[in-house]
Amino acid sequence: MIEAQVPGVFHRRVGEILVTALHDGHQDSPVSSMDGIAAEEATTLLAASFRPARRTAVNAFLIRHGDRIALVDAGLGQGVRPTVGFVAKHLADAGVDPAAVDTLLMTHLHRDHWGGIADSTGTAAFPNATLHVHADEIAHWDSDDAMMRLADPAQRQAMFIETRNRLRPYRDRMQVFRSGEIFPGVTAIPLPGHTPGHTGFMVASGGRSLLIWGDIVHVPEVQIARPEVTMKVDTDPALAIATRRRILDQVATDRVAIAGMHLHFPAFAHVARDGSGYRLVPDAWTLDLDGDTP
């Protein structure tokens, strides 16, 4: 009796660079976690895509270039929910020892991105990795003033204190950036709004490119067609909308391949124009590591 899917690992080559999607699982949330859209309309859009509810995938991405290995985000971590926390397993399925990862690239510092970098005892999951994070992101989550703007002590604990605790084993090997190349063939692209230092990573080699766009969308069935829809966890909703619209226009115009932490696995896609809006075109599963797009 088969009781589980095959490992959530999918490779895509970008020139000389191999990008591997690692599926961490999924989280289900109510449509009330979105702003800027009525619950009934959000439910209708989800139903039109054969989604009975808001199901948000969680992914991380491995980047291999020569003998260098980077991991972009690390999922929620193990033991939080039964449907999520599989990055470590799928990293092993991909044949990569955590000790071989030399670089951790963080799109931003929400739990479903930093949860897998260390365990609850504070032991680093990647003992030889340097952690790279945008300067504005560190400034925000290290700010007591920002923390105290949250009235709920439980939210302060979950959003700020736990973030600081999980980063602790990397503090002496952390590098902050604002933009530019931070790993061979990988350039940091600031995408603020969801959080102050939210960042995408443009992978480019051999005339090909792929934008790992982080959390530009959480609910693709809704936010691709309705980019004005925001998430309650966005720190600057207006800026998040502006950034999403800018990036959707850019990748549709330039026909740039994308990968997303909350696109449904295997999480590689393109964005096409659809009238005055956009639609997501997920990449077809293929045995060809170069994909189907020249």
Q: Quick summary of this structure?
A:
By secondary structure, the chain is α+β, with helices and mostly antiparallel strands.
Q: In whole angstroms, how far apart are the ends?
A: 40 Å
What does the average pLDDT come to?
95
Q: Shape, please? A: globular
Percent of sequence in beta strands: 25-35%
The helix fraction, in percent, is 10-25%
InterPro entries: MBL_superfamily_lactonases, Metallo-B-lactamas, RibonucZ/Hydroxyglut_hydro
Family: Belongs to the metallo-beta-lactamase superfamily.
Keywords: Hydrolase, Metal-binding, Zinc
Protein name: Glyoxylase, beta-lactamase superfamily II
Task: Describe the fold and architecture.
By secondary structure, the chain is of the alpha+beta class. The chain has one domain (9-282): Metallo-beta-lactamase, Chain A. The protein is built from eight helices and 16 strands. Strand 9 and strand 10 (186-190) form a beta hairpin. The mean pLDDT is 95.
